[in-house]
């Protein structure tokens, strides 16, 4: 039996996204593709003109929050909570992460932290009262979220080595410690803070509101990547949080791992978006840049770089489409998202390097955009689990033996 991929009725596919060589977008139903095209227009027309200046300043353009609020793109993965529509598929959620990262990885990270890490922590880890209390305002982007897990002295080992503590005093919890690299935290209204309960030694989650005494976020400066993301180092000094603001369905790090399993796949989609954006920039440049009397796109070595990049994109896209289908079917596990994150981010590193190479000396200029993609790729390669850590998750799955130290 032969299956033919039919183009969407919404409009042409390949003409709008040249990197979609195998027409993966045609897998979306028309209603979902309309949302994707809305995001595409928004990123191209309203966001892209701001990103290079914002990247150079190292500031998030906060005027975009009102724009995103009015776009209808916030809170899409969640049904209800003021959304007035069904939740979208994991495939569309992934392609939206791709689409935003195709323009800028930092803006894509803003969405990933708010829509993904923060909102999903409350959706999965909170009880119904907490979901009803916090998610409607977050889905409307009237309130912005952040996710505070990584610590100054703890990254990959945070599961067993979390130093931030929570001590219960009657109906209140007292938090002490520090967090680092927390995106959105300089302006977020709600920050999901993870801390180790000193009584049972288990990790628990707390929603800390902006302005809570003892909660002090300071913006991290002098970054060479993700400059638009306002990462913060947070100090928590006797921060008092009511029991009602502790995520009631989180009992240990095992519950937190369920959240990370879901969001790690989103980072792989983001890496794919960076690949797509870099490749398209290189392709356009190869068509326009003339050397030796003709466009460099006619040179064999340049075509080799472009085709290798397109191969990485197409292979990664196919992997992520199947991962999204497994998520929708509820049959994916840690090792599936871990393999995607490890594989796709490694391919991303290759593509941004090859794409920058097409630009020659111009590739180090922010004016041509590609330098921003090249730098930002390094951040994506490292966060949500390094390649090495994700490799060990997959290695344990396929061999049945843990190689973790």
From TrEMBL:
Acyl-CoA oxidase/dehydrogenase middle domain span: 146-239
Cofactor(s) annotated in UniProt: FAD
One Pfam assignment: Acyl-CoA_dh_M
Gene3D superfamilies in UniProt: Acyl-CoA dehydrogenase/oxidase, N-terminal domain, Butyryl-CoA Dehydrogenase, subunit A, domain 2, Butyryl-CoA Dehydrogenase, subunit A, domain 3
Family: Belongs to the acyl-CoA dehydrogenase family.
Protein name per UniProt: Acyl-coenzyme A oxidase 4
Residues in Acyl-CoA dehydrogenase/oxidase C-terminal domain copies: 256-398
GO molecular function terms noted in the UniProt entry: acyl-CoA dehydrogenase activity; flavin adenine dinucleotide binding
GO BP terms: fatty acid beta-oxidation
Keyword entries, A-Z: FAD, Flavoprotein, Oxidoreductase
Positions of the Acyl-CoA dehydrogenase/oxidase N-terminal domain: 30-141
Domain of life: Bacteria
